């Protein structure tokens, strides 16, 4: 009998997430110079010609790795680029700890240097804050925006409240994700992770959302614990061209745990004419 977990599927997902920098049949790794640092991205092969690339932006203290399950599904239709922000994953570390505007600026420079601008951005968790900052200050670089499980909810803007929300939803996450997250944390280092967390708490995303011109889809997992329904609804209302969708059966890290349902919600949005 099959147990409560599909071990074969978990192993396949882990292998996809942990493969870089080795190439495989679907993805390869690339490094781009941004302000003297080598920034890593995991990029789909045989990308469709003339289709806007989808750039995946990871969350706090993690990397491209946990984005790969949804990236693999999106790559069937779009060029996919899952980037490691400077200081995380396989990208080189800057000397300073970068806050949200600084990380967004590095991402903007990477988009231009790598030839991926303009792009559709899909950010998860802390990655939504970076995507919003970039879209507000560089509208020419963003065609569409997807904010999956946006942070920081103004009603829970403290380290203990955010940690408690994350812990409440932990039992719904794919357990195969945790070795990936531990590897990401080791790559970033505890000091960088904590100081970036503090920078994320200081970032007033709610003040930036009205400045975003790109059509934006806000998604929230059906079993989301980090991004409350009230905050997701408010975020969608604050946007000029915002809409909200619920990802069935999903916790916070939909990109890994509920990649199929997330892709099913996102692809019709990306396929519309802007």
From TrEMBL:
Query: Which Pfam families does the UniProt entry name for this protein?
Result: Abhydrolase_1 (PF00561)
- GO MF term set: hydrolase activity
Taxonomically, the superkingdom here is Bacteria
The record's section on InterPro entries has: AB_hydrolase_1 (IPR000073), AB_hydrolase_fold (IPR029058)
Which ranges carry the AB hydrolase-1 domain? Answer: 53-161
Decide whether keyword tRNA-binding is in the record: no
List the keywords (alphabetical).
Hydrolase
Q: What is this protein called?
A: Alpha/beta hydrolase
**Gene source species:** Glycomyces lechevalierae
């Amino acid at each position: 009998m099959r147990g409560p977990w599909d071990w074969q599927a978990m192993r396949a997902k882990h292998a996809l997430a942990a493969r870089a920098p080795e190439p495989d049949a679907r993805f390869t790794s690339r490094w781009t110079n941004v302000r003297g640092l080598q920034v890593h991205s995991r990029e789909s092969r045989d990308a469709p010609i003339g289709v806007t690339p989808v750039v995946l932006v990871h969350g706090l203290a993690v990397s491209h790795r946990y984005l790969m399950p949804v990236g693999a599904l999106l790559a069937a239709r779009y060029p996919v680029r899952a980037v490691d922000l400077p200081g995380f994953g396989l990208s080189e570390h800057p000397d300073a700890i970068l806050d949200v505007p600084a990380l967004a600026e590095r991402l903007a420079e990477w988009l231009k240097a790598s030839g991926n601008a303009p792009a559709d951005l899909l950010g998860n968790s802390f990655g939504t804050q970076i995507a919003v900052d970039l879209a507000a200050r560089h509208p020419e670089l963003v065609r569409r925006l997807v904010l999956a499980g946006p942070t920081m909810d103004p009603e829970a803007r403290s380290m203990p409240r955010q940690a408690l929300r994350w812990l409440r939803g932990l039992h719904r996450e794919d357990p195969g994700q945790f070795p990936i997250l531990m590897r990401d944390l080791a790559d970033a280092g505890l000091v960088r992770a904590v100081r970036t967390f503090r920078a994320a708490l200081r970032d007033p995303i709610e003040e930036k959302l009205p400045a975003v011109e790109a059509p934006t889809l806000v998604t929230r997992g059906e079993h989301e614990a980090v991004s409350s329904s009230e905050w997701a609804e408010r975020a969608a209302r604050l946007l000029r061209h915002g809409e909200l969708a619920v990802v069935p059966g999903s916790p916070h890290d939909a990109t890994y745990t509920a990649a199929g349902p997330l892709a099913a919600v996102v692809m019709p949005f990306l396929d519309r004419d802007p």
